[in-house]
Amino acid sequence: MEVKETDSIGLADILKIVFGNKCVTKVLSAETLDFTFAEAYKIAVENGYSKGVIILIAESPLEGKVFEYGNYGKFWVEHGKTRGYA
Predict the structure, then answer these.
(1) Whole domain around residue 55: which residue ranges?
(2) Is the pLDDT of residue 83 over 80?
(3) Who contacts 41 (Cβ-Cβ below 8 Å, separation ≥6)?
(4) Number of domains composing the chain
(5) Which of 39, 44, 50, 74 has the greatest number of beta carbons closer than 10 A?
(6) Per-residue confidence (pLDDT) for residue 43, from 0 to 100
(7) How far apart are CA 40 and CA 54, in angstroms?
(8) pTM of the predicted model, to two decimals?
(9) Burial (0-12, 13-18, 19+ Cβ within 10 Å), 83
């Protein structure tokens, strides 16, 4: 399912942004619904991302979601779900 950059990632307190050989962890101050895909992309760029695939794991104590950017084009897709922290 394709998602918009301005969409909320959903309920999460830990984000893992993986690209190339890097994994950037962003700990949110509290479980929040305000963090967007545009913000995750910006963090990746600030940490050296320039091309390829970005994997975003949005985690909370009970469940999480896995998103992917760049595999099918320059947009985010929901790739899967987890139970608890991955």
Answers:
(1) 2-83
(2) yes
(3) 5, 49, 54, 69
(4) 1
(5) 44
(6) 96
(7) 10
(8) 0.90
(9) exposed
Question: pLDDT (tens digit, 9 = 90+) per residue, 10-19?
Answer: 888 899 999 9
Which candidate, 54, 7, 53, places its Cα nearest to that of 34?
Answer: 7
Closest CA to 73 of 43, 44, 51: 51
- The encoded tokens of residue 72 equal 């099918």
SS3 category, 51 = coil
Phi, psi at 36, each rounded to 5°: -110, 165
pLDDT in tens, 42-68: 999 999 999 999 999 999 888 899 999
32 vs 76: which has the higher pLDDT: 76
Backbone angles phi, psi at 27, to 5 degrees: -95, 120
2 alpha-carbon distance from chain centroid: 13
